[in-house]
Amino acid sequence: MVLVMGLNFQSNRAGALAGVFVLLFPVFLPGLFSPLGNASPSTFSEWNTPKPRHSRLLKSALQRRSSKLDQSDLWAPLADQGWKPCVASKASSVPWKSEGYIQVFLDGGLNQQRMGICDAVAVAKILNATLVIPYLETNPVWKDSSSFMDIFDVDHFINVLKDDISIVKELPAEFSWSTREYYATAIRATRVKTAPVHASANWYLENVLPVLQSYGIAAIAPFSHRLTFENLPDEIQRLRCKVNFQALFFVPHIRALGDALIGRLRYPSNKSGAKEANHPSMTTVANDQGPLKFVVLHLRFDKDMAAHSACDFGGGKAEKLALAKYRQVLWQGRVLNSQFTDEELRSQGRCPLTPEEIGLLLAASGFDNNTRLYLASHKVYGGEARISTLRSLFPLMEDKKSLTSGSELAQIKGKASLLAAVDYYVSLHSDIFISASPGNMHNAMVGHRTYENLKTIRPNMALSGQLFMNKSIIWSDFQQAIVEGHKNRLGQIRLRKPKQSIYTYPAPDCVCHN
Fold it and tell me: How does the protein's chain sit in the membrane according to the entry (predicted)?
């Protein structure tokens, strides 16, 4: 009896301890039990750090050698293709009498807002209206409240466009009531919220002009992607490009910081004493032959993209589960890609290239381990663990943090739009630009560098996906396929097709034959 009671006591005690452990387990490992809205896929990826998925190729890539001839061809600028920018305005065409004031409220990230600003100028021109400097909404993801004037040089903007439209920094006193808060509290007669995506010029003349004529002001929201790319006068198309490529200059301190980063990339041994003390590794490359060349890699590999792609990135079941949950929270499962297998997605080029894969693509293209690589990205899904393979291939890789002092970075820290603006500026002034996957930054940079006739590598996503699925491919065959598959994807002029964006394909509307 005593023995039985003792056993029961021990059993009950063990059960009680187990119960306490179960209750306290979420406290010590909250990531497993937090609500889906707060779950972070990167947590799972850190527990299950993925090993290189292409070890065979990686081993060969780490032993690669490039000849001086190969390097010369690789870094050679684009030859003159017989095209030149053609966005010059005719003599001043600002109307004597404005129909009223146009306000637009722009959401999205920096590059989406940039396109919205260009469209706003075009709509103001179509309506013979005065444009109020656009209002940039606070981004709900990055919580960045930067205004137009925090990002862009407003005086330059107004001056460049002074012969095209009338622009004011703020409304006159009689219209001071027309604010974002005013339109958020009730239905207002002066707000236009029914603009369809890619609306025609006639739509604005029929629906917005009467509002202007009745009230002297019209506020259009939402406004992203609200102007067509088709059936517009040449004057309007060229004006959009003039805004994008000539009027939208970043504020001086962004340009100054961008120039400083470019200088440190081109002259790594020429640092101030303070910079050398903070970053001694940055002074190890001697440079007696003038400025060095550098590549900018836009690594768009954040958790939103990883989840939305529905692709497998090698993090195992935990990562798949985390991404599936995150996908459900953000898009309630309405993700087209989730209908396909990983193999189908990769063969169609619908999976973003991982840091490892874009590194292998660059290595196969001829970039050696002495290549100066600037990493333009916001936050990489999986953190440093994901980037380590890329860094092993390109040990001279830098980014904003590695190239700046604490005081320099403090000017833009926590401001996603300003951080993106610095990356945009450095990307535009690089010798070569490449993006790991399509997106707003990729599209904006392809268009801007096409306008300037600068070398830009557009990864062949379908080819790359198929090559990476071939686990038996040897390095020489992989390298040959990559080189052959990208020889016509280095910045050659591509004419815009119907419904394509003028900001990605500025020819032939804004880039004309000599």
Answer: Single-pass membrane protein
